[in-house]
Amino acid sequence: MARTSPWQHNQPNGININDGCGSIHPEEIQRIVKMSGADVGITHDGDADRVLLCDENGDIVDGDEMLAIAALDLLECWAAGAKHRRCHRHEQFWPG
To answer: What global pTM score does this model have?
Structure first.
Protein backbone atom coordinates (compact mmCIF):
# COMPACT_ATOMS: atom_id res chain seq x y z
CA MET A 1 0.00 0.00 0.00
CA ALA A 2 1.40 3.38 -0.97
CA ARG A 3 1.85 6.04 1.65
CA THR A 4 2.51 9.75 1.45
CA SER A 5 6.12 10.70 2.03
CA PRO A 6 7.15 13.57 4.30
CA TRP A 7 9.29 15.54 1.84
CA GLN A 8 11.78 17.74 3.61
CA HIS A 9 14.61 20.01 2.44
CA ASN A 10 13.25 20.02 -1.11
CA GLN A 11 13.43 23.74 -1.86
CA PRO A 12 16.98 24.31 -3.17
CA ASN A 13 17.95 27.89 -3.90
CA GLY A 14 21.56 27.43 -5.00
CA ILE A 15 22.89 28.33 -1.56
CA ASN A 16 21.24 25.85 0.80
CA ILE A 17 22.51 22.62 -0.79
CA ASN A 18 23.37 20.16 2.03
CA ASP A 19 22.47 22.82 4.61
CA GLY A 20 21.68 20.65 7.62
CA CYS A 21 20.50 17.76 5.45
CA GLY A 22 21.58 15.14 2.93
CA SER A 23 24.05 12.32 3.26
CA ILE A 24 26.48 14.51 5.21
CA HIS A 25 23.84 15.05 7.92
CA PRO A 26 22.32 11.58 8.47
CA GLU A 27 20.88 12.67 11.81
CA GLU A 28 18.28 14.70 9.91
CA ILE A 29 16.85 11.75 7.95
CA GLN A 30 16.86 9.75 11.18
CA ARG A 31 14.84 12.49 12.87
CA ILE A 32 12.35 12.73 9.99
CA VAL A 33 11.82 8.96 9.83
CA LYS A 34 11.21 8.71 13.55
CA MET A 35 8.94 11.77 13.58
CA SER A 36 6.84 10.61 10.60
CA GLY A 37 6.74 6.87 11.31
CA ALA A 38 8.07 6.16 7.81
CA ASP A 39 9.25 2.69 6.85
CA VAL A 40 12.42 4.02 5.24
CA GLY A 41 14.27 7.29 4.73
CA ILE A 42 16.35 8.10 1.68
CA THR A 43 18.80 10.97 1.57
CA HIS A 44 21.54 12.00 -0.84
CA ASP A 45 24.03 14.80 -1.17
CA GLY A 46 23.62 17.86 -3.38
CA ASP A 47 24.71 16.22 -6.63
CA ALA A 48 23.24 12.80 -5.71
CA ASP A 49 26.47 10.81 -5.99
CA ARG A 50 26.08 9.59 -2.38
CA VAL A 51 22.98 8.09 -0.85
CA LEU A 52 22.10 6.80 2.59
CA LEU A 53 19.08 4.86 3.71
CA CYS A 54 17.58 4.83 7.16
CA ASP A 55 15.31 2.04 8.40
CA GLU A 56 12.08 2.47 10.34
CA ASN A 57 14.03 2.62 13.61
CA GLY A 58 16.29 5.42 12.41
CA ASP A 59 19.28 3.11 11.94
CA ILE A 60 21.50 4.01 8.98
CA VAL A 61 21.81 1.45 6.18
CA ASP A 62 25.12 2.13 4.46
CA GLY A 63 26.22 1.31 0.91
CA ASP A 64 27.69 -2.08 1.79
CA GLU A 65 24.43 -3.12 3.42
CA MET A 66 22.42 -1.85 0.44
CA LEU A 67 24.54 -3.92 -1.95
CA ALA A 68 24.15 -6.98 0.27
CA ILE A 69 20.36 -6.55 0.40
CA ALA A 70 20.17 -6.19 -3.39
CA ALA A 71 22.49 -9.18 -3.97
CA LEU A 72 20.56 -11.46 -1.62
CA ASP A 73 17.28 -10.46 -3.24
CA LEU A 74 18.67 -11.12 -6.71
CA LEU A 75 20.03 -14.52 -5.64
CA GLU A 76 16.61 -15.40 -4.25
CA CYS A 77 15.06 -14.41 -7.56
CA TRP A 78 17.49 -16.59 -9.52
CA ALA A 79 16.85 -19.49 -7.16
CA ALA A 80 13.14 -19.08 -7.89
CA GLY A 81 13.82 -19.70 -11.57
CA ALA A 82 14.69 -16.37 -13.16
CA LYS A 83 16.36 -17.21 -16.47
CA HIS A 84 18.15 -13.91 -17.03
CA ARG A 85 20.78 -11.95 -15.16
CA ARG A 86 18.07 -9.94 -13.48
CA CYS A 87 14.65 -10.54 -12.03
CA HIS A 88 11.54 -9.20 -13.67
CA ARG A 89 10.76 -7.31 -10.47
CA HIS A 90 14.10 -5.49 -10.75
CA GLU A 91 13.55 -4.27 -14.30
CA GLN A 92 11.83 -1.16 -13.07
CA PHE A 93 15.07 -0.22 -11.30
CA TRP A 94 17.69 -1.71 -13.62
CA PRO A 95 16.38 -1.51 -17.20
CA GLY A 96 18.30 -2.82 -20.14
So the answer is: 0.66
